[in-house]
């Protein structure tokens, strides 16, 4: 089964808004890390007289959902005062995108964190003071603090350990923090009755939908990057979940071709279907 991404998610992934950095930014929020697989930098411009965010841009290293969530966030906060912007929750970001798969909700949480960090930076609140307020790190694999966990669990009414991992990544590494996560979860469950929250479900794509999405991803997301280095690819065939391409230009015979094709396969699995297999046709 493939993740059922909304049209808005695909739109903000293929054609993201406000990419880059605000020149002479008034506030900067950097969250995540490349080592953990997701990193986001949000910069904002603020009117000093009204506290209104006049511009917002982002740069991210992450999956398609991270790009889409960051793009949507910048659109949502422009024109709002700082206090109004801080009322935008990660659930609001996901809702504005038409929903995100449960496994990708951490991307909306990362956007909300970057916003808070950028506002704190503008207001002169140091990262050290914020880290102290957040408390000790519980998940050392992904640097998730007790304060963040309590906030995300409560705000999204999380009910399972899987929910916690989907929203924060905590518990998705070595697993040493599972016992502490269970304690935090049990505390929440005892305090708040269950309120079901709708999430995007996995649904199968038709053959035509799959072929169209593969072509769109390759043409708009992959090929422009290859072409920057005088390389390119040709789509040879799509047979169910088997995608065959041919590397051309500087990509043909490149020593890093293996890394490039792995990156392309990861993109296809992320956006189209986790079971896709990418094959490269060699010229004879």
Q: What is the gist of this entry?
A:
This protein is α+β, with helices and mostly antiparallel strands and 284 residues long. The chain is built from eleven helices and ten strands. The chain is 46% helix and 19% strand.
Description:
- The chain is α+β, with helices and mostly antiparallel strands and 284 residues long.
- It has two domains: 1-204, Alpha-Beta Complex (Sufe protein. Chain: A), CATH 3.90.1010.10; 207-280, Fe-S cluster assembly (FSCA) (GMP Synthetase, Chain A, domain 3, 2-Layer Sandwich).
- 46% of the residues lie in helices and 19% in strands.
- The chain contains eleven helices and ten strands.
- Strands 2-3-4 form a three-stranded antiparallel sheet. A three-stranded mixed sheet has the order 8-9-10, with helices on one face.
- A hairpin with a 2-residue loop joins strand 8 (231-239) and strand 9.
- Helix 2 crosses helix 5 (105-123), helix 7 (146-156) packs across helix 9 and helix 10 packs antiparallel against helix 11 (257-271).
Relevant terms:
284 residues, alpha+beta, Sufe protein. Chain: A, GMP Synthetase, Chain A, domain 3, three-stranded antiparallel sheet, three-stranded mixed sheet, 11 helices, 10 strands, 46% helix
The total number of structural domains is 2
**Can you give the mean pLDDT?**
86
Fraction in helix: 40-55%
Extended strand count? 10
What's the CATH architecture of the largest domain? Alpha-Beta Complex
> Low-confidence stretches at least 5 residues in length (pLDDT < 50)?
none
Q: Give the CATH level 1 class of the largest domain.
A: Alpha Beta
The radius of gyration computed from the alpha-carbon positions, rounded to a whole number of angstroms, is 20 Å
Strand-pairing-aware structural class: alpha+beta
Which strand order do you get reading across the main beta sheet?
A: 2-3-4
The sequence of SSEs as H and E is: EHEEEHHHHHEEHHHEHEEHE
Principal-axes shape call: globular
Q: Report the end-to-end length measured between terminal Cα atoms.
A: 35 Å
Secondary structure tally, helices: 11
CATH fold node name of the largest domain: Sufe protein. Chain: A
Main sheet?
Answer: 3 strands, antiparallel
Beta-strand residue fraction: 15-25%
């Amino acid at each position: 089964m493939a993740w059922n991404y909304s049209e808005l998610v695909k739109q903000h992934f293929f054609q993201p808004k406000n990419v880059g950095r605000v020149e002479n930014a008034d506030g900067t929020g950097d969250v995540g890390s490349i080592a953990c697989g997701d990193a986001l930098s949000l910069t904002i411009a603020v009117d000093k007289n009204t506290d209104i965010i006049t511009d917002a841009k982002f740069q991210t290293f992450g999956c398609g959902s991270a790009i889409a969530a960051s793009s949507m966030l910048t659109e949502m906060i422009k024109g709002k005062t700082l206090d109004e912007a801080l009322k935008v929750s990660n659930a609001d970001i996901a809702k504005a995108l038409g929903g995100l798969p449960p496994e990708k909700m951490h991307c909306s949480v990362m956007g909300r964190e970057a916003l808070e960090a950028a506002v704190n930076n503008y207001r002169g609140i140091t990262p050290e003071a914020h880290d102290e307020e957040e408390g000790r790190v519980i998940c050392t694999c992904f640097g998730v603090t007790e304060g963040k966990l309590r906030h995300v669990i409560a705000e999204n009414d999380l009910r399972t350990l899987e929910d916690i991992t989907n929203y924060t990544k905590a518990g998705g590494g070595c697993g040493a923090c599972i016992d502490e996560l269970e304690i935090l979860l049990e505390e929440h469950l005892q305090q708040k009755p269950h309120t079901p929250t709708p999430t995007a479900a996995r649904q199968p794509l038709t053959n035509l939908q799959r072929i169209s999405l593969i072509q769109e991803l390759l043409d708009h997301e992959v090929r422009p990057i290859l072409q920057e280095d005088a390389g390119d690819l040709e789509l040879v065939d799509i047979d169910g979940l088997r995608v065959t391409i041919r590397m051309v230009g500087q990509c043909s015979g490149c020593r890093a071709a293996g890394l490039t094709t792995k990156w392309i396969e990861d993109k296809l699995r992320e956006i189209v279907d986790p079971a896709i297999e990418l094959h490269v046709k060699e010229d004879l």
